[in-house]
Amino acid sequence: MNLIEELKEKLAPDRVTTNETILDQHSRDESYHTPRLPEVVVFPESAEEVSEVIKLANQYKTPVIPFGLGSSLEGHVIPPNRGMSIDFSLMNKVLEVRENDFLVKVQPGVTRSQLNKELKKYGLFFTVDPGADATLGGMAATNASGTTSVKYGIMRDQVRDLEVVLPEGEIIHTGNLAEKSSSGYHLNGIFVGSEGTLGCITELTLKVYGIPEHIMAARASFSTVDDAVNAVVGILQAGIPIARVELLDAFSMKEVNLYSETNYNEQPTLFLEFHGNEAGLKQDIEFTKDIVLDNGCTAIEFETDTAARNQLWEARHNAAYAYIHGNPGKKLMVTDVCLPISHLAGAIKDARKAVEESGLVGGIVGHVGDGNYHILLMIDVNNKEEIQKSEILNECIVEYALARGGTCTGEHGVGIGKQKYQEKEHGPALEVMKKFKAVLDPNNIMNPNKIF
């Protein structure tokens, strides 16, 4: 028997497929990286089935690529040389809500919106909001963050425990239900962000929060990006517990208006959101208003109405789609650097200059509260000159960030696209990471050629 025949014995035959359409769906993510077909796609329903599948992959020395929804942005789910894609879409159950412990246990195929729909019944919500309705397994694998990380933290901060199937089929748990622990190595921290290179996540226990009593959103326009970033620094230094603070440059605001049919000022703009009780929010908002006006804010508007607030954040989340829609025939490349907030204004100014000098279409957006910003760059993937220009531009902003103590990726992960910066960013620590990989995955079957 061959691998595919043995897989069909372990799983139901209809959950093992070589259908060309399904293979194509698992050959790509949302990035500009070149797609490659897997040899087979399997759809397990339990950790035990994942274990059996991985044991077979190990036996046949076949690469294993975990797959959530394919919304990643650095080629994480693209197979290296054929291999097996493990699709977790059938493992999509919310297993347990422990409302008194503010914890939830889920399978990896559960999406962010699916979880929040379930949690709403308990007056709870899950905070990490990367924009895309990604699966929680994929979000843990890439250590996703997003718009709310300035207040609530990133994916790694929410993970209390993971069930992981290791590359030789063993099933382990990396944590527990306790709020804190000083027992042993921090395995949660090793597996979150490992991008499927150390094992397959088959269950997650996550921290959740009470839905805020009151939510207020605001939009503040500025003459310059410097003014906008300085306003953010002022807000953070004042200790205002802001829940979201997002920056869009003037070019991005123009694209957003065209796509979302809004009429926002086409200037560098902060999108802000505040969570809390009514009395506390009133004080935070007044203090914020004073700070932004002191930093050159030209206009500020508050949204108390739920529909208007949702429209504001929908416009922000759709910024990438606005660029795609406005530039037919081109593919979106999203850069992703993060650096100390004191260097953010200079970084964004340098990035804007680099975009203009490249001649490519691009705008800047960012989770500026934690120093993370992106260039949304539209390129013709069949045009070698544009590809080269985009790579030079990306290298320029990464080098700027690394030189100031930053990172080449704040939330998208390494995948294929950021491998070449790993040695410069991590130095000798990169060899330690490789040793982890070699010990856990001696046959190098787990998502090979990613990160390293």
Can you tell me the CATH topology of the domain at 94-210? Uridine Diphospho-n-acetylenolpyruvylglucosamine Reductase, domain 3
* Average residue-wise pLDDT: 95
Unreliable runs, pLDDT <50, ≥5 residues?
A: none
Alpha-carbon Rg, integer? 22 Å
Shape: globular
Q: Mind describing the biggest β-sheet?
A: 8 strands, antiparallel
Number of helices: 17
Structural class: alpha+beta
- Distance from first to last alpha carbon: 33 Å
Name the beta content range.
15-25%
Q: State the helicity in percent bands.
A: 25-40%
Offer a quick outline of the entry.
It holds the Pfam family FAD_binding_4. This protein has helices at residues 3-10, 20-25, 47-60, 112-119, 136-141, 149-152, 155-158, 187-191, 225-237, 250-260, 278-294, 306-317, 319-326, 344-358, 384-403, 422-426, 429-440; strands spanning 16-17, 40-42, 64-67, 84-87, 94-98, 103-106, 124-125, 159-165, 171-173, 200-207, 209-210, 214-222, 242-248, 269-276, 297-303, 331-334, 337-338, 361-367, 372-379. It is α+β, with helices and mostly antiparallel strands.
Any overview of this molecule?
The protein has 452 residues and is an alpha+beta fold. Among the domains are: 94-210, Uridine Diphospho-n-acetylenolpyruvylglucosamine Reductase, domain 3 (2-Layer Sandwich); 214-320, Alpha-Beta Plaits, CATH 3.30.70; 327-412, Alpha-Beta Plaits. The protein has 17 helices and 19 strands. β8 and β9 (171-173) form a beta hairpin. The longest helix is centred in the last third of the chain and has 20 residues, at 384-403. The mean pLDDT is 95.
